[in-house]
Amino acid sequence: MVAGIVTIWFGGRFVVEEEALVMDELTTVETEDGQLIERIYSKNREIVEGSEIPKHVKDAFVSIEDQRFYGHSGVDLRAIMRALYKDILAMEKVEGGSTITQQLAKNLFLSNDKTWMRKTKEVMAAIYLERNYTKDEILSFYLNRIYFGEGAYGVQSAAKHYFNRPVSELTVAQGALLAGLPKAPNSYSPFDHPEASIQRRNLVLSEMQEYGAISVDVMKRMQGSTLATEQVEDSSETWSNSYVDLVIDEAAEKYHMSRDELKRGGYRIVVAMDPQIQRIAAEEMKNGEFVPGSNGQVEGAFTLVDNDTGALVAAVGGRDYKHGDLNRTQLKQQPASTIKPLAVYGPALMKEEYQPFSVLPDRKQTFSGGYSPGNYDGNYEGEVSLYQALIESKNVPAVSLLDQIGVDYAKSYLDKLGLPTKDDGLAIALGGLSEGYTPIQMAAAYRSFANGGKASESYTIDKIVDRYGKVIHEHQGKEEQVFDAETAWNVTEMLQTTVQEGTASSGTYPKALAGKTGTQQGENGNKHVWFTGFTPEFSGALWMGYDQSGEGYSVQGSSAYPTRLMKQILSKVDQQRPLAESFQTPEGLENLPKPIQLPKLTEATGSLDLAGLATFRGTLQWNASQDDRVVYRIYREEDGEDVKVGEVTGQSSYLVNALRIFDETSYYVVPYDPLTQLEGEPSNIVTLEWNF
């Protein structure tokens, strides 16, 4: 007998597992200012400190479950004797008689079997808990542990589920309602069985009055009150799903925290998402205009990063993305012509011998290895400026320039931009890569131009706080100076022109935007289409295409579609939070002049006026460009080599020196670009002669 008592009294340490006292708790994903984005959990439990639970709520549970809680040592002998008496009469285990401490011990450490051995272990564990923890600690463990129905574990989650408020704000009647639920959560649900719930609540209020927790007046008043529940609609919105899945992946890859750990660890993950932009992007990706395809609905992905921090503020992994879907923001795709500023033009401008108006060949040619690219429109100009080649997305000049600067040199910049590739061919210039890059990578890389040439990896998580309020992980950004400020600014200005006048001019966005399109061609049509670009505030990428590739899967349209949708998203963002009207010229740098379009002079004419005795003065005229920077060179035809007789800038006429009456002289006009130092096509021949 003595040995049995000693075993019961001291054997609890063999039953209790201390780690079980650390209960599973949901993890929240929220913004820096505390806006809740989503909860991650296997059990919807939110741990709350005992000090945050009002006394009247605690009294409600003690009153209905264990009125002698503060007086016993974990086991209520009077209740046990009463339960034994009823069990003997029934010849089976029918009465519990368990204290709150015993219930906690059973829930944490034991099964629900109604056996004498399980009951003995329960008593042993309860005594252990009472000897090692205070009553308030035990009650807090209990209130955070118990199930309240409808997926709510713990009093905090229950308060939010049934009343849409934290437990600290519950009234006496609301606390009593919760205290009545654990006995039979489904039967007493205030949503499904309101009358039964009221009866159970009123019973708890009566017990509270008997216990001395409330007066008779308060009891009667509370018993006459409504349930005061507020059912929060289960949200079927999926606008944040893409982003939160990225958060979970980042926690695993960067901080080695598994999804299971997040589901039970009770962490607070503070993220860099801008909920307003994320909602807009998700809505537009779901309902916006997409490029048509050959085999059903074409998919898409959108990313946007903050230019100041490099943080990912919005990400949409599909047109109607839900948790667990293929997140296309992480899917590598061939970048097509969006790679040109990153792999070719940016690196070239870092060399002294190249500047935006450097002249590049633009003629059909075959490069080493038999590589023979062609311009997408089949048009060639012989020679073209680097600037013009970029805004018109010409292929041959880009490949030629990569050939000049060297593939290894270009790849060194791709490495620093977070875009490594194992490919070694000139096809890199056109995005023809074996693996490609994700929309997240492309947005981060384009940010380098908006950020003075500095690049860094994008991220979603600002910090992770554990259940005790300690910051256990925090983002530590590291930037690398990839391009100098002048190169970054020159590319920015060229890409602005690309949006205003070049291949990215589709759609409407009135504010500052620089960007580049990309169309990846395949054997059976276009594989997919891109737009990548940036405003002064954000850099982004938008991809459209099929998850599958090969025969039967092609998009039936150009990069105008993602360009328009990107501008539509930015316009919606601008309506909510005005974006910048223009890019600010960096200190010490000058604005880049726009390219000059040389006119075609097809209607040059000439006339003679009497200038003196037997002499005449000739006048040449032509259809001048509206761009007054164009220089017009006047040439006189001669046997052998023609002679340049003069030039004018921004004018449409030229006076020829005096001619004698029988002279017959022919002239032509050639437009000249002072930026590229290239001449255009000559005008028609104009012959000056006196007709009698």
Plain-language structure description:
- The chain is an alpha+beta fold and 692 residues long.
- It has 3 domains: 2-23 and 44-223, Penicillin binding protein transpeptidase fold (Orthogonal Bundle); 283-576, Beta-lactamase; 605-689, Sandwich (Immunoglobulin-like), CATH 2.60.40.10.
- Helix content is 34%, strand content 19%.
- The protein contains 20 helices and 24 strands.
- A 5-stranded mixed sheet has the order 2-1-5-11-12. Strands 7-6-16-15-14 form a 5-stranded antiparallel sheet.
- β1 (27-30) and β2 form a beta hairpin.
- α2 (55-65) packs parallel to α8.
- The protein is elongated and about 140 Å long.
- The model is unreliable at 1-12 and 110-118 (pLDDT under 50).
- Residues 34-209 form the Glycosyl transferase family domain.
- GO terms for molecular function: penicillin binding; peptidoglycan glycosyltransferase activity; serine-type D-Ala-D-Ala carboxypeptidase activity.
- This is PBP1A family penicillin-binding protein.
Question: Layout of helices and strands, plus pairs?
Answer:
Layout lengths: L1 H9 L16 E4 L5 E5 L3 E2 L9 H11 L11 H14 L9 H10 L6 H17 L2 H11 L6 E2 L1 H9 L8 H9 L13 H18 L4 H8 L17 H15 L3 H7 L2 E4 L3 H13 L11 E8 L5 E5 L23 H10 L9 E4 L19 E4 H6 L3 H11 L1 H10 L22 H12 L3 E2 L5 E5 L5 E4 L5 E2 L3 H17 L12 E9 L2 E10 L3 E8 L14 H17 L28 E8 L2 E7 L9 E6 L6 E7 L3 E8 L3 E10 L4 E2 L6 E4 L3
Parallel strand pairs: 1-5, 3-4
Antiparallel strand pairs: 1-2, 5-11, 6-7, 6-16, 8-9, 10-13, 11-12, 14-15, 15-16, 17-18, 18-21, 19-20, 19-22, 22-23, 22-24
Helix pairs in contact: 1-5, 2-8, 2-9, 4-5, 4-6, 8-9, 9-10, 13-20, 14-16, 14-17
Pfam families: Transgly, Transpeptidase
GO biological process, one term: cell wall organization
GO molecular function: penicillin binding; peptidoglycan glycosyltransferase activity; serine-type D-Ala-D-Ala carboxypeptidase activity
